[in-house]
Design goal:
Length: about 240
């Protein structure tokens, strides 16, 4: 069932959809360049890494964020703002940014919905003019704890729907398609969000997303990446994780 409403929707993932990278690694890279000693905190991530599949993405996110341990909230916020100032505009897919601007001009409700922490997602959304944003909510308090708690669940998959469904028409229910709606993602993890939309665009999609998208005739775009091969991409990500990118 498609529900009717005058205004449309444009739902966007962030990492590897608008930004060519995982912003969690990019932000880590930025912070470690400011405070090099924090690289030592990442050593505690190593014992957990082999068990990531069993531990799950939410708990692993908590483990990875330990490089922020002890940082006061004000400093963290300043870093997040400075990181976004450095990232925008040259660190984004210009083609996708133009798409965002087009939806804004057409009057659709633009939503940035990311699994990355809202610590910096909120400032990316602000700079790009999104109407709403959602990310994983990390408990900060006055200072970041060693393994910071996450409010609710990791903002991924179906969790994204629950976070933003208050923006949908009152008559919306599970299984409904949003009117005049567009979805954008690189990952099959976002299929629940994409199924909400009448039209979808896959950005350098995973194989699982491409296979599903081909069934529905979803469009695929391939904006120019900063790296040319998977090996180059993996090496760059490794450098970001230790602040050497």
């Amino acid at each position: 069932m498609v529900i009717s409403k005058t205004s449309g929707y444009a739902l966007f993932d962030l990492d590897q959809t608008i930004v060519p990278w995982d912003t969690q690694l990019l932000f880590c890279n930025y912070v470690l360049k400011q405070e090099r000693f924090r690289t030592l905190y990442l050593l505690s991530f190593i014992p957990f890494a082999p068990f990531a599949k069993w531990i799950g993405p939410g708990p692993m996110k908590r483990v990875f964020l330990n490089y922020l341990a002890g940082m006061d909230a004000h400093t963290l916020d300043e870093y997040a703002r400075a990181f976004v100032d450095e990232l925008i505009p040259d660190g984004l897919y210009a083609e996708v940014v133009k798409i965002v601007e087009g939806h804004k001009a057409d009057g659709r409700l633009t939503v940035l919905n990311s699994a990355s922490p809202e610590i910096w997602v909120k400032y990316i959304a602000e700079e790009l003019g999104f109407d709403h944003f959602f990310g994983t909510q990390v408990e900060i308090g006055n200072h970041v704890s060693l393994f910071p708690d996450i409010k609710g669940d990791n903002n991924k998959g179906k969790v994204k729907i629950g976070r933003m469904k208050h923006l949908f028409p009152d008559s919306w229910k599970d299984g409904d398609v949003l009117p005049d709606s567009y979805g954008y993602s690189d990952s099959h993890a976002d299929l629940p969000m994409l199924y909400l939309c009448e039209r979808n665009v896959m950005v350098h999609p995973t194989e699982k997303l491409r296979e599903e998208g081909e069934k529905f005739g979803w469009k695929e775009i391939s904006p120019a990446r900063p790296t040319k091969t998977k090996k180059e991409f993996a090496l760059a990500c490794a450098k970001q994780a230790v602040g050497l990118y």
